[in-house]
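Q: Could you fold this chain for me?
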Amino acid sequence: MSTDDKNRAVAAAILPLVGGAGNITSVAHCMTRLRLGLRDRSLVRDEELKALPAVMGVVEDDTYQIVLGPGTVARVTPEFEALVAEAPAAPAATPSADDLAAQGAAIRAARKARNQTPFKLFLRRIANVFVPLIPALIGCGIIAGLNGLLINLGWLPAVTPALAAIASGFMALIAVFVGFNTAKEFGGTPILGGAVAAIVVFPGVAKVDAFGQTLSPGQGGVLGALGAAVLAVYVEKWCRWWVPESLDVLVTPTLTVLVSGLVTIFGLMFVAGEVSNAIGEFADWLLVHAGAGAGFVLGGLFLPLVMLGLHQALIPIHTTLIEQQGHTVLLPVLAMAGAGQVGAAMAVYLRLPRNGSIRRTIKSALPAGFLGVGEPLIYGVSLPLGRPFVTACVGGAFGGGFVGLFSMLGTKVGSTAIGPSGWALFPLLDGDKGLGRTIAVYAGGLLTGYLAGFVATYFWGFGARLLEEFDVDTDTGPETVVAASAGTTPPPGPAPEPGPEPKPAKL
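A: Sure. Below is the predicted structure, expressed as structure tokens.
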């Protein structure tokens, strides 16, 4: 089977399990997840979906998210979209009053369960601004690292200036892309957001004085661009409200750019510049003066932050540090949370020798875990078990403390891009003591996280009750296992006696 046929087969397997094409309202993807908007959540067959070999897990948020892993999701999504588009439109059924009431009750219950606070919604919108930029950050970051290596080795001196231009071009104009995405996300005209944000990086601002200082191109960075574009959205909406329709095409864009541009030059650039400088100085101070403790806390809390969606608040901070210093010193510390998760999963594998289902999940998810994709292990292993999720956080804390300790000792470890972690972060590493020492410290942090997560989970991750509930044979027989691996139907046999439903794991 060709790769295209395989991806289409995965999409075809998923589609009926999420209610068919008629139940899909939107299709999108991020680095690891297929994100679907659904008309009726009750039509989704969760357990059958999770049982698909290509599916690593599912997550419910503002969309229904199916974890497929990096690379795979980018190839399956177009096939899924094509299948949805090809499906014939189903005749609309006239819903009864009871049907409408039931749907409304289900929608209200789902929204209440998701606990969508205004703060979380705001963070999600901010994340939506920066997440589309991650592929360019990764690509340019790797090219920058390769260029630095060639310069240090003295190789290909005629090529390194070209590589520097390729790696730096995006970062020089990142404010424009942030402005474009911000206006799009907040309901304005994207190109107007980009036009206002472009003021931040325009060389001519060096001739402008504000607050007794001469502005410098790029002052305020992505934070200034973000604020300028949000302001442009509100100015544009205000103009749409009162400008006559016959003059809208001339007056609205002119006033939007003019008003927002003046406020950006004579206010936002200075304020955002001060905030950006404060973020950089605080990050440096934190790791220099409280590196071990700060790394321990950050590494230990990152998995819970991900579960609550609060990690999205760190994306603008990472981007600001990369724009300002060339790398973010926070990401390698936070990446240790994934190392703790991997160590915990390996301990679970040994502690549950009879649970074939969990062990197969771990074996299939560990390669992605080593590359920094933690969702399969989180949602398929540690979180359902309960206590191993806590011990995974302990592993992340010790790994983060290791990296933070070396920051206190003078070896800073940074990443030139956001997105990857685990082993996938090695090509993006940067530091102030040479690439060899930077790689050694980061690798030492990963090993510490693996070991601490394993030890904490093996010795303290399971109580007697948890072992009694989960260390059981989950396979019905060898025929089933062989048939499942071969993709065939097992031979008929006596039906197993029904047993009690497993109880949720408790800490």
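A (continued): Confidence is low (pLDDT under 50) at residues 92-101, 476-507.
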